[in-house]
Design goal:
32% strand, nine-stranded mixed sheet, globular, 9 strands, alpha+beta
Length: 169
């Protein structure tokens, strides 16, 4: 039996990766479903989404597809799409800019709706670093995918404006 996970992110087919050990196909697909406000320049938003796809979404899809079929855990989603939650970059306490993102998922049922913001996090475009929210804290993408890693630095994904008004990160 051959399973597949489709990762939907913007407007063209990016890649198809076959995982030989599991016989699973992970497809990274782009559709016009990206929701980025008009203030962001197309080149900036496309570059950030490309970093997000290569740094986290494709790895997450592989991680999900490697799960055993005989587990009691929920089956992995058949499609996922990444979107930026903000039109412009925020600035953290150290002066680095970041974009908040969300990953929406959908199961393989015929008329399944999108589950919005299944995963949330932020990406630092200059460094290419991705942090994923788990509970009240953020973790590095590697740590989220089961590799050894630490929590994100305290300043990560927290804008200067949110910190000054006392909002949660």
């Amino acid at each position: 039996m051959r399973a597949s996970i489709h990762v939907v992110c913007a407007s063209i087919l990016l890649a198809e990766v076959a995982l030989a050990s599991e016989g699973t196909v992970v497809r990274v697909v782009r559709t016009p479903a990206v929701e980025v406000a008009s203030q962001a320049t197309p080149s900036t938003s496309e570059a950030v989404l490309a970093d997000l796809e290569s740094g986290f979404v494709t790895s997450w899809a592989r991680y999900q597809s490697a799960r055993s079929r005989f587990t009691r855990a929920l089956m992995p989603p058949s499609e996922a799409r990444a979107r930026l939650q903000e039109a412009t970059a925020r600035t953290d306490a150290r002066g680095a800019s970041f974009f908040a993102f969300a990953v929406d998922t959908r199961s393989s049922f015929p008329e399944a709706n999108w589950n919005l913001a299944t995963l949330t996090g932020c990406i630092y475009p200059e460094q290419g670093t991705v942090y994923v929210r788990r509970g009240e804290s953020y973790r590095t993408a590697k740590s989220f995918l089961g590799e050894r890693g630490a929590e994100a630095p305290r300043h990560a994904c927290t804008s200067v404006a949110a910190r000054s008004t006392g909002e949660a990160r």
